[in-house]
Write a structure and sequence with these properties.
The protein has four helices and no strands. It is mainly α. Helix 1 packs across helix 4 and helix 3 (61-68) packs antiparallel against helix 4.
Length: 93
């Protein structure tokens, strides 16, 4: 998978781990069309659920929303400080 990326300033340990897990998921999905056998994404999804459950109450409501709705690309962009690039979904986020 992708090596760990550097932790942006002000990011908590859990947010940093989430960003690494989301980056690994993104990399796995991108190689799927050309890879055989296909990568097993279930452990990546389980890790994301585990990390999302560890977020403290004071974590960003937007980040929590993206993770609860499985909007992983939106969560990744938010963690990278690129939340303005997120297209608005049907839920208003």
């Amino acid at each position: 998978m992708v090596s760990e990326i550097s932790k942006p300033i002000g990011m908590t340990k859990i947010e940093s781990e989430l960003l690494n897990a989301l980056t690994n998921l993104d990399a796995a999905v991108k190689v799927m069309p050309s890879t055989n056998p296909k990568p097993d994404l279930l452990p990546l999804f389980a890790r994301l659920d585990e990390l999302a459950a560890l977020l403290p109450r004071e974590a960003s409501p937007d980040l929590r929303h993206y993770l609860q709705r499985k909007s992983y690309e939106k969560a990744r962009l938010w963690l990278l400080g690129r939340g303005a690039e997120n297209a608005r979904g049907n839920c208003g986020h």
